[in-house]
Amino acid sequence: MLKDLKPYPVTFAYLISASRGDAKRLTRLLKALYHPGNYYLIHVDSDAPEKEHREIAEFVSSDPVFGLVGNVWIVGKPNLVTYRGPTMLATTLHAMAILLRTCKWDWFINLSASDYPLVTQDGSAWTILSRSFAEYSIVGWDNLPRTLLLYYANFVSSPEGYFQTVICNSEDYKNTTVNHDLHYITWDTPPKQHPRSLGVKDYRRMILSSRPFARKFKRNDPVLDKIDRELLKRYKGQFAHGGWCARSGKRHGTCSGFQNGNYGVLRPGPGSRRLQNLLTKLLPEKNFKRQCR
């Protein structure tokens, strides 16, 4: 592991959840999302076939960059996750506890295998939580998180309300939230249980939304190739381009592996300006005091 090298200014810890049939989609997402300054914990539903568990484990263990940096892990004893009940929430809390024990990071981001990034990682029921709030959710020094966890255990879809309820009922955190999950999502009319799958016809609207993530996508949809090519500057089977893998100072090009001496180098991609504009609108101080109502 590259423990002694210069750290990045902000570090993200990702939980990436996958279920039966998601192996190819997960490996593609991880390549598109990967950055040596972040951490990645993969949870593959226990209902997935043993072959898929083995395929994902072999993908992680055989990649030389993952082995060198040592920042990609797989949950050893996965849960059986369903959209109804508390299993998804329990998996998220378990992952947060693992990441808090394992590494130092600033923000926790929860994604599924059907998500995809719209910006490169240089400069840039789905939540983004601070490390401090993640610790509070696990330790719960005033017992509020545990009390609400027991309450939400009886809800049909507890992940959609648990963290929001905890943060808005905590005196320490209620004025630190922004009511926005930074995903581009569209729904059918009338809405169905799951969001509408995105395609090429949604591409322009995704960009104009300025969001860093979008969901959900069908496996190998052509729009993913378009995102790779035009937004992430990513070639098939390689990582999304960033300063950490740049060759000879080139801004764009192949990104197949770690370049010695480039750890700590940031080269924001074209999406960084869009994301900056969105965050500028979301983060004025006056907004924080009117989110929990």
What does this molecule look like?
With about 290 residues, the protein is of the alpha/beta class. The chain has one domain. The protein is about 35% helix and about 10% strand. The protein is built from 11 helices and 8 strands. The strands form 2 sheets. The chain has a 5-stranded mixed beta sheet, with helices on both faces. Strands 5-8-7 form a 3-stranded mixed beta sheet. Helix 1 runs parallel beside helix 2 and helix 4 packs across helix 5. The longest helix is centred in the first third of the chain and has 16 residues. It starts with 11 loop residues before the first strand and ends in a 5-residue tail after the last helix.
The helix count comes to 11
Q: Describe the largest sheet.
A: 5 strands, mixed
Mean pLDDT: 84
Strand order of the largest sheet: 3-2-1-4-6
| Number of structural units classed as domains | 1
Q: Low-confidence parts, pLDDT < 50 over ≥5 residues? A: none
% residues in beta strands: 5-15%
- Distance linking N and C termini: 45 Å
**Order of helical and strand elements:** EHEHHEHEEEHHHEHEHHH
- How large, in whole angstroms, is the Cα Rg? 19 Å
Structural class: alpha/beta
- Helix fraction? 25-40%
What is the approximate shape? globular
What's the number of extended β-strand segments?
8
